[in-house]
Amino acid sequence: MEMKNIILLGAPGAGKGTQSERLVAEYGIPQISTGDILRNERKIESDLGKEAAGYMDSGRLVPDDLVIRMVDKRLAQQDCAGGFILDGFPRTVEQADKLAEILQKSGKSLSAVINIVVAEDILAKRLLGRRKCPKCGANYNVFFSPSKENGKCDSCGTGLEQRKDDNEETIRQRFEVYQNQTQPLVDYYRSRGLYVEIDGEKPVDEIYARVRQEVERLCGKV
């Protein structure tokens, strides 16, 4: 079986998490996000985690060099031997170059870069409408999948909650940052024959069928 080293791109609300879960289940490879790495390194109080904590606690961005060292450490773990799904990294062309160096060092290469594309107005509705039950974890959306009783969980009747950062101003800022960061990456990976765009407005099953099709096609070329 070809090694599947995959990057998933997509703006906040594009559905990367849902598609990652299916890829993980099908191929048995881990989903890796820089947020998870940072939290784990901090939890285990590693040297890297302690270094990152100083930046995180003061509200500063963790420097590229530190993030890259954490990614390097994570990709060297045994569960990545057969492949991985990167979510949230790289965010810049400089990080993409460093990732290529990390992989080359271990005799690996990137297989596919999948960008799940959704119109901004739909993304805004997905994020603004998100609600979650704090008790049982059930998810709803007031626009697309509302609860039967407004503001209450269908399963346990608990009042639903909205994430504090799911407000219009913050969402627009996140979109702007994402677009500014991502376009250079799109050009970077397209020029290397690794990049493909997928319509993220289709039904979830249809999106996954296309994601899987492109993963198989691109990974088969490596």
Would you mind describing this structure in some detail?
The structure is a single chain. By secondary structure, the chain is α/β, with parallel strands linked by helices. The protein has a domain at 4-119 and 183-219: P-loop containing nucleotide triphosphate hydrolases (Rossmann fold). It contains eight helices and seven strands, in the order βαβαααβαβαββαβα. The strands form two sheets. A five-stranded parallel beta sheet has the order 2-3-1-4-7, sandwiched between helices. Strands 5-6 form a two-stranded antiparallel ribbon. A hairpin with a 6-residue loop joins strand 5 (130-132) and strand 6. Helix 1 packs across helix 8, helix 2 (34-43) crosses helix 4 (64-75) and helix 6 (120-128) crosses helix 7 (168-190). The longest helix is centred in the C-terminal third of the chain and has 23 residues, at 168-190. The chain is globular and about 55 Å long.
